[in-house]
Amino acid sequence: MLSRSIPVNLPNQAYKVVIQAGGQADLGSILQAQGLVKPGQKLLVVSNSQIFRHYGPDIMDSLLNAGADVEKCLIPAGERYKTPKTLQKIYDAALAHRLERGSALVALGGGVVGDMTGFAAATWLRGIGVIQVPTSLLAMVDAAIGGKTGVNHPQGKNLIGAFHQPRLVLIDPHTLQTLPRREFRAAMAEVIKYGVIWDAELFDLLENALVLDRVEALGDDLLGQILIRSCQAKVDVVTKDERESGLRAILNYGHTLGHALESITQYRQFNHGEAVGLGMLAAGEIAVRMGLWTEVDQSRQMQLVEKVKLPSAWPGDLDLDTVLTLLSSDKKVKDGQVRFILPQAIGQVIIHDQVPPAIIRGAIQSLQA
């Protein structure tokens, strides 16, 4: 049975990413073993109704058995609800449950729940603990690790946020059995991302897999390797650059254009992973046009995206002027220049802030349906 603990050795907040099959039912005892919960401690579990229906009762029982004083807060599901208005619901629940500085929030859900709960924890009483219990592959390999938290502004994704590291990340791969197939495929874009930016062996592993588009076809061994290698890649980068002063920016591969695509389609046409996949293909096309990497490697990336059955064509009716305008308001802009993460080889990327608009436009046009 899969069980692995990956240390995240940050100077101000060291913690562990625990990957444990069936681990959700043991959350209370896992927290007790690490000294992260004590009798009478107030905890607030934040989730949405769909996720909570599947996993909430076991989580609540486990925490109650550990002696905690536990309540829940259910928020709407979906990226379009990742707003300050929804955040207010978490604050209201924190106030009603009389959370103190020694209290903690427990994020039970996907990336939206994790990001919002983390930001609420970062800002309630100027900072309380947060425990991340991701239930989607996207959150497991990306959002739950590294301390990035936030909510969206109408003009851009995650413009309101804070760095706030969790006390623990608990990944239970059994929860993926109830993950909708579209959500699983979307998350595989982030897994492919780690192969391109950091781990060429992971990329090769994905290329050699017979099927990648549904979790039940992977088998426990391949799924375990995907989780461990992806989490380790994220941890490696975060521990070298906690607050994105340099290297950590490579984790945004595919996200610069992906966020613009999400925003222009009002978070309704593509989910996050699908947009990131299209953003990676566009970044790869930009890199080809700038002579940074080969058409062969771009083709390999395209084939993996299609193997996962993610969309590989940008909308044909997209207003490219609007895309370019949105890029200028992206949170990764520095000194007025949009920073792109561009691939040089499988497992190697660079940060580039001198990409001409004409090349961006041409790259997207070449991928439009």
UniProtKB/TrEMBL annotation:
Catalytic activity: 7-phospho-2-dehydro-3-deoxy-D-arabino-heptonate = 3-dehydroquinate + phosphate
Positions bound to NAD(+): G111, V112, V113, G114, D115, T135, S136, K148, K157, T175, L176, Q177, T178
InterPro entries in the record: Dehydroquinate_synthase (IPR050071), DHQ_synth_AroB (IPR016037), DHQ_synth_fam (IPR030963), DHQS/DOIS_N (IPR030960), DHQS_C (IPR056179)
Key words of the record: Amino-acid biosynthesis, Aromatic amino acid biosynthesis, Cobalt, Cytoplasm, Lyase, Metal-binding, NAD, Nucleotide-binding, Zinc
Cofactor note: Binds 1 divalent metal cation per subunit. Can use either Co(2+) or Zn(2+).
SUPFAM superfamilies in the record: Dehydroquinate synthase-like (SSF56796)
Domain of life: Bacteria
Ranges of residues in domain 3-dehydroquinate synthase N-terminal: 73-185
Cofactor(s) needed: NAD(+); Co(2+); Zn(2+)
GO molecular function annotations of the record: 3-dehydroquinate synthase activity; metal ion binding; nucleotide binding
3-dehydroquinate synthase C-terminal domain sequence ranges: 188-333
Pfam families reported in the protein's UniProt record: DHQ_synthase, DHQS_C
GO CC annotation terms, alphabetical: cytoplasm
Residues engaged in binding Zn(2+): E190, H255, H272
Location(s) in or outside the cell: Cytoplasm
Similarity-based family: Belongs to the sugar phosphate cyclases superfamily. Dehydroquinate synthase family.
Protein name: 3-dehydroquinate synthase
Lineage: Bacteria, Bacillati, Cyanobacteriota, Cyanophyceae, Acaryochloridales
Record gene name: aroB
